[in-house]
């Protein structure tokens, strides 16, 4: 079922270009990349609203179910859905996608969720100055605001990852490969990961 599937899990620092690297790998290998799509799919399969998953995306939270379904659907406004429930739903979506075919997953603890499968787990980083430049280019933030956003997003992702995986977000021990995207650029980093995967027997 999983034997011939190519599964690549990409963790990334905010502003490192990790999503772009994943997309480039997908283009080169002809494999679908799942990032925000996971939110829509999780919402669709669980019956919860997409907004619920968007607001909890890679961050810990707890929501009142009634605020997403309207009063009365669950009979009581004391019904809450928290981190563990949302993580379980998303994990099932990720495993379901991996079971059906090759896939590239961006973030969302996919390397932990699929830890029992044959996967290539990579983490993309970059120096702060490079990340600040990238964030400024795609937003209207100034340098100070861009740096603040990067630090905030990284803390959020780290907390989320460490809580659910009992691991260490960005630590080399949790991945097969850790790459600084500023050295080879987006295309070069994608090629490097693919080459590594082939030599490691993780990409056919």
Task: Describe what this molecule looks like in 3D.
The protein has one domain: P-loop containing nucleotide triphosphate hydrolases (Rossmann fold), CATH 3.40.50. Mean pLDDT is 85; it is low at 62-80. The longest helix is centred in the C-terminal third of the chain and has 23 residues, at 143-165. By secondary structure, it is α/β, with parallel strands linked by helices. The relative contact order is 0.21. The protein has helices at 18-29, 37-46, 50-55, 66-69, 83-100, 110-113, 128-138, 143-165, 181-199, and strands at residues 7-12, 33-34, 62-64, 80-82, 103-106, 120-125, 177-180. Helix 1 crosses helix 9 (181-199), helix 2 (37-46) packs across helix 5 (83-100) and helix 7 (128-138) packs across helix 8.
Strand content: 5-15%
The end-to-end span amounts to: 16 Å
Count of individual domains: 1
The coarse overall form would be globular
Order of helices and strands: EHEHHEHEHEHEHHEH
| CATH class identity | Alpha Beta
What tags apply to this protein structure?
204 residues; alpha/beta; Rossmann fold; 5-stranded parallel β-sheet; two-stranded antiparallel ribbon; 9 helices; 7 strands; 52% helix
Question: Mind sketching the topology for me?
Answer:
Blueprint lengths: L6 E6 L5 H12 L3 E2 L2 H10 L3 H6 L6 E3 L1 H4 L10 E3 H18 L2 E4 L3 H4 L6 E6 L2 H11 L4 H23 L11 E4 H19 L5
Parallel strand pairs: 1-5, 1-6, 2-5, 6-7
Antiparallel strand pairs: 3-4
Helix pairs in contact: 1-9, 2-5, 7-8
Summarize the structure.
The protein has 204 residues and is an alpha/beta fold. It has nine helices and seven strands. The protein has one domain (7-199): Rossmann fold.
């Amino acid at each position: 079922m999983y034997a011939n599937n190519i599964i690549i899990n990409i963790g990334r620092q905010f502003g490192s270009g990790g999503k772009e690297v994943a997309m480039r790998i997908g283009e080169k290998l002809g494999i679908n990349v799942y990032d925000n799509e996971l939110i829509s799919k999780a919402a669709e399969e669980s019956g919860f609203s997409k907004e619920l998953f968007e607001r909890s995306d890679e961050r810990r939270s707890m929501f009142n179910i009634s605020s997403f379904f309207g009063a009365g659907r669950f009979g009581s406004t004391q019904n809450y859905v928290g981190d563990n429930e949302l993580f379980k739903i998303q994990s099932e979506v990720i495993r379901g996608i991996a079971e059906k075919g090759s896939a590239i997953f961006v973030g969302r603890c996919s390397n932990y969720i699929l830890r029992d499968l044959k996967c290539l787990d990579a983490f993309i980083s970059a120096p702060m100055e490079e990340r600040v430049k990238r964030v400024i280019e795609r937003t209207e933030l100034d340098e100070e605001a861009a740096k603040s956003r990067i630090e905030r997003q990284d803390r959020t992702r780290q907390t989320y990852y460490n809580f659910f995986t009992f691991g260490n977000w960005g630590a080399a021990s949790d991945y097969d490969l850790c790459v600084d995207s500023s050295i080879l650029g987006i295309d070069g980093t994608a090629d490097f990961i693919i080459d590594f995967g082939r030599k490691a027997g993780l990409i056919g």
